């Protein structure tokens, strides 16, 4: 059974959190509330999240400062952050959001369909990453457990092929997304494409290392 992904919603206004929950409930994932930057950082200490929706304007620790703390932590630095703001101070304000590590920057009021679609991309990537890592870990344990029998070898080869095919499907989706984003020439598009590329490159490298004979050249 596939575990649901967790999405962190950070906003100091309860009505905004309620609205986000209404918009994202259709994704059927676990939505976690945080009413401040401090509360968000506490949640990130114990749970893994697929994506963070972070309000820019909050009393005390604002969204930019919260994002800076998130990006400094080894555990959380790769979690995608989507900034939400009720005002638009122009390109400089938007650039500050990207500089703080956001993959997207959305002004309120936003289109619910667009927001849901953006979040779903990162949820899908997170779920696939989790599945691939889990299967790759199980396969590595199996391979390290001793010389496999003929049946085990065939099973391992089949599992490797399945993993490679799943990753190839994600790579194909990411490539198509990158082409669409390139046409917009938007800073958010560049950041999103770069994030996907780093994730997929790491997964492909890890999977290639599991291929039979991958370490033969050094052994």
From TrEMBL:
The modification 4-aspartylphosphate is found at residue 55. Keywords: Coiled coil, Phosphoprotein. Residues 160-187 form a coiled coil. Residues 6-123 form the Response regulatory domain. InterPro entries: Bact_response_regulator, CheY-like_superfamily, Sig_transdc_resp-reg_receiver. It holds the Pfam family Response_reg. It comes from the Bacteria. This is Response regulator.
């Amino acid at each position: 059974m596939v575990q649901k992904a967790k999405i962190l919603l950070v906003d100091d206004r309860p009505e905004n959190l309620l609205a986000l929950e209404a918009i994202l409930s259709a994704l059927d994932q676990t939505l976690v509330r945080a009413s401040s930057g401090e509360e968000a950082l506490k949640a990130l200490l114990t749970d893994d999240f697929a994506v963070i929706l972070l309000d820019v304007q909050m009393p005390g620790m604002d969204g930019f400062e919260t994002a800076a703390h998130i990006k400094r932590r080894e555990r959380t630095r790769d979690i995608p952050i989507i900034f939400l703001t009720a005002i638009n101070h122009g390109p400089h304000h938007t650039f500050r959001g990207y500089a703080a590590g956001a993959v997207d920057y959305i002004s309120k009021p936003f289109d619910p369909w667009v927001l849901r679609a953006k979040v779903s991309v990162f949820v899908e990537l997170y779920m696939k990453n989790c599945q691939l890592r889990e299967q790759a870990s199980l396969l590595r344990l199996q391979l390290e457990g001793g010389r496999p029998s003929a049946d085990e070898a065939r099973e391992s080869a089949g599992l490797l092929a399945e993993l490679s095919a799943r990753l190839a499907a994600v790579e194909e989706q990411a490539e198509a997304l990158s082409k669409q984003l390139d046409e917009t020439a938007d800073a958010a598009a560049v950041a999103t494409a770069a994030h996907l590329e780093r994730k997929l490159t790491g997964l492909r490298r890890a999977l290639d290392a599991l291929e039979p004979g991958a370490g033969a050249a050094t052994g």
